[in-house]
Structure formats: C-alpha cells, structure tokens
Amino acid sequence: MGLPRAAFASDHPDAAPDRRSAGLGAPVAIIDIGSNSVRLVAYDALSRAPTSLYNEKVLCGLGRNVLTTGRLNDEAVRRALTALARFRVLCETMQIARVFVLATAAARDAENGPEFLAAAETACGHRIELLSGRREAELSALGVISGFHAPDGVVGDLGGGSLELVDVRGATVGTGVTMPLGGLALQDLSGGSLKKALKIARENLKKAAPQLDTLRGRSFYAVGGTWRALARLHQAARGYPLHVMHGYSVEPSDELSFLEVVERTDAALLQDVESVSEARRPLLAYGAVVLEEIIRVGRPRELAISASGVREGLLYEQLDRDARLADPLLAAAGELNTLRARSPGHAQDLIAWTDHFIASLDAPETADERRLRHAGCLLSDIGWRAHPDYRGEQSVNVITHAAFVGIDHPGRAYLALAIAFRHAGVAPEKASPMLRGLAGPRLFDRARLLGGLLRLAFPLSAGMAGALGSLPVVVQDGRVTLTLPPEAESLPGDRILNRLRGLARVIGLDGRIVTG
User: How far is 66 from 64, CA to CA, in rounded Å?
Assistant: First the structure.
C-alpha cells in the first residue's frame, strides 16, 4: 500500500504545473533484476526523452558464484526479495501507470532461478520478463539508439553475469551475442586471477567475431555500471571538467593506458575511487580486462559511454514509429521549453527566424549544427523565472548537467555557451574557459552567433510568440539587416541597435535597420 498523499508538494495550490498537467504523460517504471544489482527506475513518462523521477539500486550480488555452484546465493535472494517488496510500495506511492520488471543472466543461468522468479513476482506484484541473452543484447542496442543521434558501431553491455555485443547502424540492430564475461561471472570463473580472466575473455570474445570484425574505425558504445565507474575514474585521472557520463568520449589509445593502470593497481588506491561503491570496486579490474581485449581486437575509432541501456531500450520499444523517429535531443529540449518557457510557441518562432538568418550566410551549417541551434532556441528561455542577474548562470547549470541524450559533450558545451551569451553578451572573454575548451573553436563561434541572435530576438518580441515573423534579420548587401514593417517603426531603441551591432560584430560586419 502506498504512502498517504495529503502532504505531497504537488497538492499545494501554488505548486508549479507538473508533466501530467502540461499534457506530457504519466510516469512509468522499470525494475531491473540484474546479476549485480536490483534497481528501480521511475521515469516521468513514456516518451522519446524520458527523465528519471526516482532511481534506487540495491547491490544484491545475485550472480555471485552462480557459474561455479549453479545456484543463486540464499542471502542474495533474501536481499533481492526485500528490495523488490520495497520497490512495490514505492511504485504505488508514485502512482506509476505501468511497471515493467526484467530479469537477466543470474536468474536465467541458476538452477533455482525459476523458484526465485516465482517469489520475486509475489514480492514486486508484477509479472517478470526473463530476458534471453539475445533479447538482452537487442534491448541494449535499442537503448543506445534511443540515446545517441545516428549511432554507428557496436554496443557492449557489461553486467554482473554477462556481456552482450551487438552491431547498430542508425536505427538498425544487428544480431547479438552473449558471453559469461560479466564482472561477477569472470571473477568466479577465473578464481580471482586477472591473468586467467584475460585468457577467458580472449577465448570467449572469439565467439563475437561477427560483431568485433565490423568495429574497426567505428564507435564502441559502453553500457553498464562497471564501465561507467571506470569512465568516472578516467575523468578524475584526466582532470576532466564535466562530470556527465552519457556521451563521454575517449580515444582508445588513451583508454588502453588507463585500463592497464587499473589492472595492476589496488582499487583502493585509484584516484576518486570513493565515487565507486565498495561492492563494485573489486569488479573494476575485470571490467578493465574485458574492455581492453575488445579495444585490442575490434580497434574502434572511439569509446562512447552510454547511460542508456536495456531499460531505456525497453521504453523506446514501446513507442510508436513516429515517436521513435523523433530526435531525442530536440524532444528533451522541447519538453523543457513547454514546462519552463514563458511563451513556449516563441521557441518555434526563433527556430524559423534563425533558419532565415543562417540561410543568408555564405558559411554553410552542418546538419548537426542545425539541430544544435534548434535545441538552443528551445532552451533559450528556460531561466526566465530566475533573478535577472542569475538567469544565465542558472540556465547554463541546467543545460550543462541535464540528463539530455542525443548529444555529445562538445554539443552540450555549445548549448550552454549559446544561452550564456544570450544573457551576458557575446564578448568572447565572458565565456567559461571550461565550456570553451569542451566546445572547440568552431562550435564556440557558432554559439556566439546564436547567442547574438537570441539577444536581439527577445527585445524585438518581448519573448512572446507571433512577433518575429514580421521582423526578419538577414545578411544583405554585406550588412546584417533588420527589416521593420511600417507598424513597427517605433520599435528600435538603444537596446535594439546595440544588440544588432553586437550580432553583426560576431561575423565581422556592420548592422543596419530598414523599414518597408
């Protein structure tokens, strides 16, 4: 039975409108019974860009020693059933509309797996889907497809009991393969010997030749808690400034050097190891062994960390075709615009208005730069409720650390910079050095340009929908030209003129206003 709802903040008459009142759907949840952990994740809605409402895991270790004993450990089972009963209450409390429950390698491989699953269904109150290895690989691939824009490479999902590998090209999923190379399984099979673990990994990965033979020069998408933990430690070792896992990209040669350090160093001595749970630390070296062998055999162009896996793949699979085809970044930015902007329709005006301006430039815009600019328009007014002195800072913080998918770290930096320039002005020295470094020179310049356009658009339209269509700004006769209709001749003032000139300076031109 759920907890009483009388004290919930959303019941207060002054509470901000939530997703349901904004027409964005009802929450759903997934309970994932894995070999290492049992986890509940509640999402705000079944949508193209779901956001986690609540996330809790219990490290039960169901998969520990399964491959040598053939059975789930009694204490691990007890901990898992206790967690599932708790998750049932939490789902009732959150009024979850739909609950999906999945079980993976440990329950699949253990002789007492069916007995455990029957007890688990009673504890959580829902039917449990026991995933085959191939089904697990498919959902992992769909998770990456849901979380990356036009992915191209091989997905590897490392759990406690198994490793799944599967090829992805755009929205197409190849044939998957599963191997007993999860951290707990490899620790078990090797008897705690990393040397033996490497040999086991090498032999098993020969079964993945169809997947790894296609990896050369493409991306390897790393899914799973152990690999995310290794990425977090890699960021600490590099002094990397943005502590966001999804979309974190690493060159294979750099990663190999780091993995070798992990394998020969006591986990307790690794930099920032406090960020990794004590139960997972002994598995880091085994995850490193498997990843190292994949890199050496497959020779990918890059490693990309994915926070989207089986759970997100299952949600993605539930969507209709049109929703699946939507851009996840634009979907997420659009929802933030709906929830936070003062006039959500204004963002669509900005997209069309900036499209018109960009079309007048000689410099081409790539397809990815276009989608980033459109996302920037959607996010341009999410901080309007803050004090004017802090709108830029607040917006940058939200964008930099938001749970966006479909975007890499340079793109994330571009969005944050564009909104910072929109609020603080387009002078380069006003930019965060950290964000400037992440964006790179070209995206930095594109962010200044969008920031300049947004700075001009808002005083022209007061941030309201329906105004910008009659106030075009284009490059014409070598100058940035704002054209006003007769009824808007009184609109310009010092603010408009200064912002028009500021925009023009970004591209080395002068600005002018014409009427007609």
Answer: 6
